[in-house]
Automatic annotation (TrEMBL):
Alphabetical list of InterPro entries matching this protein: GlmS/AgaS_SIS, GlmS/FrlB_SIS, SIS_dom, SIS_dom_sf
Domain SIS: 22-156
Keywords: Isomerase, Repeat
GO process annotations (BP): carbohydrate derivative metabolic process
Organism in which the protein naturally occurs: Agromyces aureus
Name of the molecule in the record: Sugar isomerase
Length: 289
């Protein structure tokens, strides 16, 4: 996980340069759905918000097992590192011949490549570790670049996040609540998932404005409330009043996710856990027929 995590500035730069692959994604004005499971679902949420808020077309994000895709979409984008996830394969099979499907896939030899109408493969971002880091963020980098974003700042910030000396207080916290607004809500959910997967930590995640509607009750000394991107007015003071640490940096939110990944890895190492083979998890969820 460590080497894969630290390679993200390089893989994001490669994704930003994939002009042909970016053009294969749905064109401006198309009405689309983006589907995935776990980490891929959270990246789908971020992409959907960025695409629709940027005026590129109506965009919905679904977890593959709960997707409402029979709504007249022009295309469905399926995001999956392995290309073997049962729910994604079943959904794409259901759509064959009826709705254009585009796969964004880590493994170019996977069965999904042959099922979708258009396969965008990112083998340079594929991973050995069960716990995803670089494939998810590299796919999101590809999506962001396809929407016309310049990723230079994000790449520079990611390099800084990789090189940062982590504060022991941040690593040793009892509990973490991750927050985001807009496209960074998906990143908050992903950060919490990384903590749970890699280090078996107590983590939660919410849209920032929802945090004061109940979840702030768990904020206390020795715990962390971590905001991705700009925080709502007054939230930092409300959190600090509880004695909890309020963490909010000036980095691109995707680069701040790299920091959270590093904290998860550091906690796993401190506990003698192997994030490349976490408890109860496998690289892909493949269900029996």
């Amino acid at each position: 996980m460590a080497a894969e995590l630290e390679s993200q500035p390089q893989t994001w730069a490669r994704a930003a340069a994939l002009v042909d692959e970016q053009r294969a994604l749905p064109a401006r004005g198309a009405r689309i759905a983006v589907v995935g499971c776990g980490t891929s679902w959270f990246m789908a949420q971020s992409y959907a918000w960025l695409r629709e808020s940027g005026g590129h077309g109506e965009t919905d994000a679904f977890t593959a097992s709960e997707a409402f895709v029979d709504r007249g979409y022009d295309a469905v984008v399926a995001l999956t590192r392995s290309g073997t996830t049962t729910e994604v394969l079943q959904l794409v099979e259901h759509l064959r011949g009826r709705v254009r499907t585009i796969g964004v896939i880590g493994d170019p030899t996977s069965p999904l490549v042959g099922l979708v109408d258009e396969a965008i493969t990112l083998p340079f971002a594929d991973e050995r570790s069960v716990v995803q880091t670089r494939f998810a963020t590299t796919a999101l980098a590809l999506f962001r670049a396809s929407l016309g974003e310049n990723l230079d700042r994000a790449i520079t910030d990611a390099a800084a996040a990789v090189a940062e000396t982590l504060d022991p207080e941040l690593v040793d916290a009892e509990q973490y609540s991750f927050l985001g607004q807009g496209w960074s809500v998906g990143l908050a959910h992903e950060a919490a998932l990384k903590m749970r997967e890699a280090s078996q930590s107590w983590t939660e995640s919410y849209p920032s404005m929802e945090y004061r509607h109940g979840p702030i009750a768990i904020a206390a000394p020795g715990r962390v409330t971590w905001q991705f991107g700009e925080a709502p007015a007054g939230l930092a003071d409300d959190v600090r009043a509880t004695g909890a640490r309020f963490e909010a940096g000036a980095l691109d939110p995707m680069a701040d996710l790299v920091r959270a990944q590093r904290v998860a890895l550091a906690r796993a190492s401190a506990r003698g856990l192997d994030p490349d083979a976490p408890r109860n998890l496998t690289r892909s969820v493949i269900l029996d027929a």
